[in-house]
Amino acid sequence: MSDSLSGSFGGAAEEYERGRPDWPAAVLDAVPVPAGADVVDLGAGTGKLTRVLARRYGRVVAVEPLEELRQILAHEVPKAEIVEGRAESLPLADASAEAVFVAQAFHWFANDEAVAEIARVLRPGGALVLLWNGAHPERPSPLPEPYRERFDALREEAPLPDVAWEEVVARGPFGPLHTAHVDHEQVSTRAQVLAFAASQSWIAYRPDRAAVLEEVGALLPEVEYRFPLRAEVHWALRA
């Protein structure tokens, strides 16, 4: 995927932390990773999932390539061991983790090289856990229709390529892919909704980012927004 898109998160680190939804602890109940395990959060960002992992597992290593995101991560999750690194070249020892978690990021590095590195770091029987937060498919959005229409139009101006990530995982040394979901809710202010918009790669990379955010902000009333969300959890065990 485009480095300009993935690298744009560095310039929107504060917005990412303010606007992106949290993860419910129940997502960890869905996966066969024992409490107290040694785990990795790959592509940890500002630590949205890392802080949930740190409350359950014994050792959490957070891998994040962007310095701006690592700074916030270190402040928010002091218990985690934070390292600079990329999925294709992990600065971690062989068979050093019982699970590798990837939250909202696997589409950026869904390739055979990254999967081979993840498998190298995992112990036999360890879990690769992929998570995505998204809108609940059966409940309406609280956002006004004009805002949603403009937001969708902006996303189509810089479309992300489709990634057949399931096929990439299947080519690696893993067993069957399992899936679960956890419904939850995120309550946001207007400012947090706009921060979420600003944190999107296809807005953050734009040279007219400020003007675009002003435009969509004019479509967003100053009210409380309750977002019905569904966290998708996928995992496979290393052979």
Structure, explained:
The protein has 239 residues and is an alpha/beta fold. The chain has a single domain, classed as 3-Layer(aba) Sandwich (Rossmann fold). It is 35% helix and 24% strand. The protein is built from eleven helices and seven strands. A seven-stranded mixed β-sheet has the order 3-2-1-4-5-7-6. The longest helix is centred in the middle third of the chain and has 13 residues. The two termini are 28 Å apart. The model has no long low-confidence stretch (mean pLDDT 94).
The portion of residues assigned to helices is 25-40%
Order of helix and strand elements from N to C terminus: HHHEHEHEEHEHHEHHHE
How many angstroms separate the termini?
Answer: 28 Å
* Overall tally of structural domains: 1
Number of strands: 7
Beta-strand content bin: 15-25%
* CATH architecture grouping: 3-Layer(aba) Sandwich
- Count of individual helical segments: 11
